[in-house]
Design brief:
Length: 121
């Protein structure tokens, strides 16, 4: 199975993309920690791995992590909410539903433009 097929299937979790990221970080944690990478360094390092990763290995590790988190009795509720899709803050946006924050932002931008004389005539 390819990465995109796995992501679109959302078979184990609607937030499976986060688990895949965790699997990548888990595999490379020694390099990241030994070099004491900061956020920017981690992004660059992971980005440089783009065509060098064994995707099957990453997907297998992601599945292992996800299943472990789903069955482990002491998994924190916040983590379970992310895994099961009950934490909307971590969900991929629903394009079918209007985002109230985006609508408020759009109204604010329109007001700013009108205040500068750039709004509708």
């Amino acid at each position: 199975m390819t990465l995109w097929e796995t992501l679109w299937s959302q078979r184990l979790s609607p937030n499976y993309h986060l688990i895949i990221c965790l699997a990548i970080l888990d595999k490379h944690r020694h390099v990241i920690m030994e070099n004491e990478f900061g956020f920017t360094d981690i992004l660059k390092y992971i980005n440089d791995l783009a065509y060098c990763m064994d995707i099957q290995e990453v997907l297998i590790r992601a599945e292992q992590i996800c299943l472990q988190l789903l069955v482990y009795p002491d998994t924190p509720e916040e983590v379970k909410a992310i895994l099961t899709g009950k934490n909307e803050a971590m969900m991929t946006p629903n394009v079918e539903r209007t985002d109230p924050f985006l609508m408020a932002h759009n109204r604010h931008v329109v007001q700013l433009l009108e205040g500068c004389g750039l709004g509708k005539d």
